[in-house]
């Protein structure tokens, strides 16, 4: 699946959805660092893509990058709120709070 999707990179079908799909496939394969790269591309192309923000936060968490995951969830919450995507907003709020509770130091007090 990954190789089929990667063939579309750089073609007219290269968009946020393609990058999101590649990110999900790499996450399924356990390569969360690579997944995060594609998911960052997705949200760069479409900053209001709340599902991509949520997947990015998850991949960053799995990659051990909690501070970056908290930031991704925060930005995703804003995007979801702007789109009226209440479910994604609620889910990312829960995930962010869990990370903040687990984080040492001043991170616990952020947002």
What does this protein look like?
With about 110 residues, this protein is mainly α. About 70% of the residues lie in helices and about 0% in strands. The chain has helices spanning about 1-5, 15-30, 30-45, 50-60, 65-85, 85-100. Helix 4 packs antiparallel against helix 5 and helix 5 runs antiparallel to helix 6 (about 85-100). The protein is globular and about 45 Å long. Mean pLDDT is about 95; it is low at about 105-110.
Give the SSE map.
Layout: H1 2-6, H2 16-28, H3 32-45, H4 50-62, H5 66-83, H6 86-102
Helix pairs in contact: 2-3, 2-4, 3-4, 4-5, 4-6, 5-6
Summary keywords:
Serine Threonine Protein Phosphatase 5, Tetratricopeptide repeat, 111 residues, 72% helix, globular, mainly alpha, 6 helices
